Amino acid sequence: MGREEFVNIYGGIYEQSPWVAEQAWDREGNPPSARLAALFESCVNDSTREQKLALIRAHPDLAGRAAIAGELTKESSEEQRSASLDQCTEVEFKCFQLLNSHYKEKFGFPFVMAVRNSSRREILEVFKRRLENNPQSEFNLAIDEIHKIARMRLFSL
Description:
By secondary structure, the chain is mostly helical. The protein has helices at residues 3-10, 19-28, 36-45, 49-57, 65-69, 74-82, 90-107, 120-130, 135-155.
């Protein structure tokens, strides 16, 4: 497989960030599939803080406006649906909106969590708890969660 096909297949593993697949290809060409998760993680971990921040900011709000408008990537839509975020009660929806707003105000980027196989209640509890973190801890947690999301996406291909 060539670079273009590789990026076409794996470019969506990291939310709206095909640069991760491009860098992985540039580092190793067509790596064996067993090595992809570690290679992608390495590309992200070796990137600049600005690239990491852009990667975090590429993620949509949970139960946010993009979800309502149908503007999520296919992968994000499936992940949010798997956690029943598309079935929020009015109270839950308002809670998500308030938490999204407070979180972005405090940290400058959206809350990121690998929500697949989580319940809305669990997500809201984690959301509230993580609002207590300091910015650097939360930045690091967001990157860790992004790696979890990417691994789940990669292994579902």
